[in-house]
Design brief:
With 288 residues, the chain is α+β, with helices and mostly antiparallel strands. The protein is 47% helix and 11% strand. The chain has a five-stranded antiparallel β-sheet with strand order 1-5-4-3-2, with helices on one face. Strand 3 and strand 4 (44-51) form a beta hairpin. Helix 4 (86-94) packs across helix 15 (266-280) and helix 5 runs antiparallel to helix 12 (211-221).
């Protein structure tokens, strides 16, 4: 692949893996461009490429990229808080350098509303369609790309407009959430000031947001790194790795266990376990 790093600014990025960070299922719109990745952070178009322990960023995007990629997170210290068990150690080795990005809050909430019962590729397809049809046009090096549409932009649409983007039943939820936020019924800036429990409750007022989506939003959009979303994949992982012989096991018990066992950086542990299982487990493992 052709490198474009020569014309860009380098960020020091030790203990960092760009590909796993952007490709682990926490964010869905970055696309391959040559030897790097092209995407948007809010309304800023960015090209990112990693070489020799550095991340090269398109001109003017250095501060945005450094914050978005969480290059300031003390990753060694974070991993040192993980529980000392073989499954967690294997996942941490596999995901070395992967960081929890700081996504724009609305984009994160909206994306996970659209993620219900969808695989990563489908979520990405929906994100790109919404951006292309309703988001602000951006440009990088002659390439066209789009910001995620604002709540105001989506609030003016009809449910049929969103169903035409392959959203299905999620269209009603996304439209309702956009309208609540556009009207000020839920203020994401104020949500960011609340403690985890209160922020989770506030997010759950939005259509299509239950505990799992709220925890995804807290982790990826509000930097609440203790939040531990439990989706179908993670429930399988927990049951297979930590409750192998337990048949009568409720989701609530898994939530309680995860909150205590994985500690102050449980969100990092969750994403490492999720990515490792999704990439390495054979089809059918954990479904029995």
């Amino acid at each position: 692949m052709t490198s474009m790093a020569a014309n860009m600014t380098a960020l020091t990025a030790p203990d960092f893996d760009l590909e796993s960070t952007l490709g682990c299922g926490q964010v869905f719109h970055w696309v391959r461009e040559g030897a790097g990745w092209l995407g948007a952070v809010g309304d800023a178009a960015l090209f990112l490429e990693q070489r020799d322990g550095q991340v090269f960023v398109s001109a003017g995007g250095e501060k945005i990229a450094a914050r978005y990629l969480a290059l300031d997170h003390p990753l060694a210290e974070i991993c040192a808080t993980f529980p000392d068990d073989p499954a967690m150690a294997e996942a941490a080795r596999f995901c070395r350098g992967m960081r929890i990005v700081r996504q724009p809050a609305w984009e994160c909430v909206a994306t996970f509303i659209t993620s219900s019962m969808k695989q990563v590729a489908h979520i990405a397809q929906i994100s790109h369609t919404l951006r292309r049809r309703f988001g602000a046009r951006l440009e990088w090096n002659g390439r066209e790309l789009f910001a995620y549409p604002t709540p105001k932009a989506l609030a003016q649409l009809s449910e049929a407009d969103l169903r035409a983007c392959a959203l299905g039943f999620r269209a009603k939820n996304l439209l309702g959430a956009a309208r609540m936020i556009a009207e000020g019924a839920v203020d994401l800036a104020k949500v960011a000031q609340l403690d985890d429990a209160a922020a989770r409750a506030a997010l759950c007022r939005l259509p299509g947001v239950g505990e799992k989506v709220a925890n995804c939003a807290l982790l990826f959009g509000f930097e609440r790194v203790r939040a531990f979303p439990i989706d179908v994949w993670i429930e399988r992982v927990l049951r297979e790795l930590y409750f192998k012989r337990k048949r009568k096991l409720t989701t609530q018990r898994l939530r309680e266990f995860s909150a205590e066992y994985f500690g102050p950086y449980g969100g990092y542990a969750q994403q490492y376990l999720f990515h490792h299982a999704r990439k390495t487990w054979p089809r059918g493992r954990g479904k029995g």
